[in-house]
Design brief:
With about 170 residues, the protein is mainly alpha-helical. The longest helix is centred in the C-terminal third of the chain and has 31 residues.
Length: about 170
């Protein structure tokens, strides 16, 4: 991991703020948390692609904490706070694993959002299983519930990251 420079930290702050603002533009909101937004994860994904995994995980985790503090509260269980916010958004930083060229950034975006998906599915099974319909496997319920908003977010993120990457690839790191 690179040493954090002032430029990296300032850019992280800007991207976290932009992600927070975009999170307020909701296309769809699920009843127990999670929503399809105007690409709110894109600033964090883009930051991770630009600076790498470590800085991306840190920026994503800070954004996750901000989401919990400023957003609606569905649970105060410590595992829910960690798995639905801190870890889930931190894992968006995995996008930085695949930052070498244009084709690989889509793999990075996929793995970043997959990391968030896995974390929220685990939370769904551990914390939210009682909300599953009667006789429904909690794993299936959690996968369907979280996939209902993260798959559209993945598609939106692919489109926006592709546009932004092409537009800004000439900016030096």
């Amino acid at each position: 991991m690179k040493n954090f420079t002032t430029k990296m930290l300032v850019e992280a702050g800007i991207m976290i703020a932009l992600a927070q603002i975009l999170s307020y533009v909701k296309i769809f909101e699920a009843p127990y948390g999670g929503s399809v937004t105007a690409g709110s994860m894109v600033p964090i994904l883009f930051y991770a692609i630009r600076w790498g995994v470590g800085p991306g995980i840190l920026a994503g985790s800070v954004y996750g904490i901000l989401q919990f503090v400023l957003g609606p509260k569905y649970s105060f269980h410590i595992l829910s706070i960690l798995l639905d916010y801190v870890v889930a958004f931190g894992l968006l930083g995995l996008a930085g694993l695949f930052r070498q060229d244009f084709k690989n950034i889509f793999v990075g975006v996929f793995f970043g959002i997959l990391g968030r998906f896995v974390s929220t599915v685990l939370s769904g099974v551990i914390i939210w299983a009682s909300y599953a319909p009667e006789n429904m496997n909690p794993w299936i319920y959690s996968i369907v519930y979280n996939g209902a908003y993260l798959v559209p977010e993945l598609i939106i993120s692919f489109i926006l990251v592709g546009i932004l990457y092409r537009a800004f690839k000439s900016i030096p790191a």
